[in-house]
Design a protein that fits this description.
InterPro entries: ConA-like_dom_sf, FA58C, Galactose-bd-like_sf, Laminin_G, Neurexin-related_CASP
Subcellular location: Membrane
Structural class: mainly beta
Largest sheet: 7 strands, antiparallel
Protein name: Contactin-associated protein-like 4
Oligomer: single chain
Family: Belongs to the neurexin family.
Distance between the termini: 52 Å
Pfam families: F5_F8_type_C, Laminin_G_2
Helix content: under 10%
């Protein structure tokens, strides 16, 4: 009715679900109780999903976050999210409510359109980006993307050089592994290989973000909100890499000594290399 949402039964198994129609960046939420009633929710969980079937709970400080709700029917309790949610569906799940009333909620969601370029990979394909070396600085590389998959193994990114040098980002048993191989161990004996693993259970069909930043010999590798910083002892400056990046697989199988060699099966979103929108470029050319 006009008073807001109030389920027939007030128990822990109720929720209010919203379909925003498309993926949206949500930055804040606000709640009230039922209009002119003694029905209000004192605490609730917020869940989100792209599909309406696979749900994730909003977390803060690495733990599931219970929002403080209302203390009466009419005051608005507004909550600015510490980090925005990108999703199409939202679920408000009441945990506690006024003991002298029932579950009652009026809600508002704040946010804006989320600009997104998505490409799907079927486990047999890869996207190759060849760029003009004259336009590139050899000392700075920034690659960012989001991915989601149900497969626990697959190549996300590969770049190779003439003498066996290569950089590979690979999903292995649900964890992301960044492998930097300096190929020629005679000239780089002290630091022939760097292998860093981040994340776990990344094959959960939710979006995960990846950022690789390389400035001189400093490398930052970030998965979701976890960053690993390392120095590549100088030799990383001299990686002899071709001006070609492949996403989703290795163009010539068996060319490199990668662990699984499985192509990626899932979706990539908003792939950027040094500010270039790779998916948009692929669509237009």
């Amino acid at each position: 009715g006009a008073g807001g949402w109030s389920p027939l039964v007030s128990n822990k198994y109720q929720w209010l679900q919203i379909d925003l129609g498309e993926r949206t960046e949500i930055t804040a939420v606000a709640t009230q109780g039922g209009y002119g009633s003694s029905d209000w929710v004192t605490s609730y969980l917020l869940m989100f999903s792209d599909s309406g079937q696979n749900w994730k709970q909003y977390r803060q400080e690495e733990s599931i976050w219970a929002f403080s709700g209302n203390t009466n029917a009419d005051s608005v309790v507004y909550y600015n999210l510490q980090h925005s949610i990108k999703a199409r569906f939202l679920r408000f799940v009441p945990l506690d409510w006024n003991p002298n009333g029932r579950i009652g909620m009026r809600i508002e969601v704040y946010g804006c359109t989320y600009r997104s370029e998505v490409v799907g990979f079927d486990g047999k394909s890869c996207l190759i980006y060849t760029f003009n070396q004259k336009l590139m600085s050899a000392l700075k590389d920034v690659i960012s993307l989001k991915f989601k998959t149900m497969q626990s193994d697959g190549i996300l990114l590969h770049r190779e050089g003439q003498n066996g040098d290569h950089i590979t980002l690979e999903l292995i048993k649900g964890k992301l592994s960044l492998l930097i191989n300096l190929g020629d161990t005679k000239s780089h004996p002290s630091n022939a290989q760097i292998n860093i693993t981040l994340g776990s259970l990344l094959d959960d069909q939710h979006w995960h973000s990846v950022l690789i930043e390389h400035f001189n010999n400093q490398v930052n590798f970030t998965v979701d909100k976890h960053t690993h910083h390392f120095h590549a002892k100088g030799e990383f400056n001299y990686l002899d890499l071709e001006y070609e990046l492949s996403f989703g697989g290795i163009p010539v199988p068996g060319k490199s000594g990668t662990v699984s060699r499985r192509n990626f099966h899932g979706c990539f979103e908003n792939i950027y290399y040094n500010g270039v929108n790779i998916i948009d470029l692929a669509r237009r050319h």
